[in-house]
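Why predict the complex rather than its parts? Because the way molecules touch one another can change local conformation, and only a joint prediction can capture that. The input here totals 262 residues.
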Amino acid sequence: MCATCGCGQDGAVITLAGHDHPHDHDHPHDHHHDHSHGDHEHTETVSLEQKVLAKNDLIAEQNRQWLAERGILALNVTSSPGAGKTTLLERTIRELGATRTVTVIEGDQETLLDADRIRAAGARAVQVNTGAGCHLDAAMVGRALETLDPEPGTLLFIENVGNLVCPALFDLGEHSKVVVVSVTEGTDKPLKYPHMFAAAGLVILNKIDLLPYVDFDVETCCRHARSVNPDVTILPTSATRGDGLDAWYAWVDAHVNTTPAH
Ligand SMILES: Nc1nc2c(ncn2[C@@H]2O[C@H](COP(=O)(O)OP(=O)(O)O)[C@@H](O)[C@H]2O)c(=O)[nH]1
Ligand SMILES: [Mg+2]
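Output of the joint prediction:
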């Protein structure tokens, strides 16, 4: 994880989509990669990882409380780069927008591209640029929530940085993690990245419109996902063609209804 390679997120920049200037800016820090691997350093690294995660969990609980007080359902959407997270969210905003207010926290290392796409689809969004960091953490989401200030009783998507490794370890205060995997990635990803799939409340198997063109067996991928997360719900979708999206909206609705409104 990040504490091991030294990647930091202290320089995260948070920008409200549609505004020219960053809303919240910590100055980037010098970035050191110290890759020596002696026994002593290994012990130090493990304890640093535990401290980083314990601190994160504390802030995640504060986020969870903040969201619960407002009856906001937050879903942390993760995947490898390009699996279709933003496409799924754009379509969800367009199709659910009439009945639900949706806001989005976008995480990427650089650019405002995804926040701009979300805004064009009709939802308010903030972009968190993590710089060298490879995941969102709870502190970034806490700051993004202050900037975004989502209305009580609404639906919040957090699109994580495209990465199936570190986002599995960082609780953001979300209700559930939604892992998107696409048919172009191969059926073995749940086995190779078991922490991410074990943490999933829902797995979306996207780009099924491409099944005729790729060597991908849906049953095998589902079996692999269930080998690390036996009861997980898996929804095959095409975010571009629309297959399976009614089941996705029904899943979201069922979880909105379990979020107490205050
Ligand atoms: N064929 C197909 N392409 C898709 C689908 N969903 C997303 N894409 C394409 O995959 C690429 C990456 O999508 P994007 O939403 O940006 O992925 P992200 O990095 O996970 O946010 C884009 O070219 C999308 O048009 C899908 O269901 N089917
Ligand atoms: Mg995206």
